[in-house]
Every structure is written in C-alpha cells, then in structure tokens.
Amino acid sequence: AQSVTQLGSHVSVSEGALVLLRCNYSSSVPPYLFWYVQYPNQGLQLLLKYTTGATLVKGINGFEAEFKKSETSFHLTKPSAHMSDAAEYFCAVSADSGNTPLVFGKGTRLSVIA
Amino acid sequence: NAGVMQNPRHLVRRRGQEARLRCSPMKGHSHVYWYRQLPEEGLKFMVYLQKENIIDESGMPKERFSAEFPKEGPSILRIQQVVRGDSAAYFCASSPRTGGYGNTIYFGEGSWLTVV
Asked: What is the pLDDT of residues B59-97, one digit of tens each?
C-alpha cells in the first residue's frame, strides 16, 4: 500500500523567496511520484512527475522536485516565488502496477506575500 | 482537444434527494477515476472504471453511492439520499491507459455538491 505525508498544511513565503514544499511517501514497491497544483475552484493540474531515470525532475512554472529514495522524499522547490504561485499543492504516489489509483497527500496551501 | 468535462459544476441538493454527477473523459481516454475532496483534506480515491466495467471501487462508501461508465455516454457518479456529509468537491480524471505505471491522469474542474 502507498501513502503520502505532506509536512505543513500551510506555507507562506515572500515574493522572490525560495519555495520548499515537503512530501514523504511510503510504498512497498518502486513508486511513481507526482505533484499537482490546484487553483481556487479549479481542478488539478500536473506540475511534474517522476517515473524512472533522472531523480531531479523539472516541471512547469519553474518548479522542480528531487526523488530521494534513501529519504523516501519528493520535495517540491522553486528558486523564486511569484504571486501567481499561490495555490494548493498536492503530492501523489502510485505503484508500479496496472490498476493502482493515485494516492494523494492532504495538500499544502502556499501563500505568497508581496 | 477538450479536457475532462464535468457537469454540473455546482449542484445544490436537499437532504434525501439524489445527486448525479457527470464526467466526459478526454477524447481517446477509456479510463475514468472519481475522487472526492472534503474541506481541509486531500483527494480521496473513490472508484476506477473502464468502459462498462468497474475496476476498483475500494474507496466508494458501501451505501448510497454508485458509479457507471457505459459504452456510450459519460461516466456518472450517483449519490442517493444525500446527507450533509456528502457536501464536497467531486473530481473526475481520465487516462488513455491504466493509471498505473506512472501514466498521467488528467483532472476535470470538479463538481461542487452542497447538501442543505
């Protein structure tokens, strides 16, 4: 079974500051890892995903995440926050099998202060 | 290329009524997933369907909830005799292949159900 823990339900950063959203996962098999972003009253949009290969994954809007197997982590970062980054961010995991649904964390709300 | 389409976007029902939420997957996608998002919580998996088949319904409440994905037409999530606790955002997602193996699933904009 898979599970995801997102540390911090709310993160607040200043515009231009580093964004770091934490995600730890639990999986009994090699995981596939995802970050999704949700703007108010909208659906989820894929930011980036890790499947195999390079452990540093680059996504849209300047975000990137690094898969660290030894730490069972997949933290999301962005060097410089922009006001438009304010949203809810969800980390998710799926397993290397055919019919495993995505399992989501509870989300982290990012606020960006001018 | 239209994305995943959900309707209605907002639905208000009185306790005891039925709610029907519809989802048309992206063109070419034959796999549909329903998730529920309660306030201050993440998305909880409900059910995974392929055309005319329920593949995994481990997240569906045992009573009052049902889902289908017929050969023709949209997938429907049906909630009978709604209660206040059913108030949530219901998201549909689709994929062209199975959702495992790291395949991306694409989400609709959600249907917000309010039970009064």
From this structure: 999 999 999 999 999 999 999 999 999 999 999 999 887
Instruction: Give the C-alpha separation, A5 to B93, whole Å.
Output: 22
Among A49, A97, A100, whose Cβ lies nearest the Cβ of B104?
Answer: A49
Nearest CA in chain B to A10: B40
**Any alpha helices (H) in B8-52, and if so which ranges?**
none
Per-residue pLDDT reduced to its tens digit, B8-62 = 999 999 999 999 999 999 988 888 999 999 877 788 999 999 999 998 899 999 9
Q: Are A101 and B98 a contacting pair at CB < 8 A?
A: no
Residues of chain B with Cβ-Cβ distance to A89 below 8 Å are none
* Chain A touched by B99 (CB under 8 Å): yes
Radius of gyration of chain A (CA): 14
In the numeric block, the tokens 């009052």 are attached to B64
CA distances from A106 to A10, A109, B38, B72, B114 (A): 11, 10, 10, 34, 21
Nearest to B56 by CA among A97, A31, A92, A100: A100
Q: What is the CA B18 to chain-centroid distance, rounded?
A: 15
| Tokens 């961010």, residue located | A89
- If 0-12 CB within 10 Å is exposed, 13-18 middle and 19+ buried, where does residue B87 land? middle
Q: Return the residue of B nearest to A93 by Cα.
A: B102
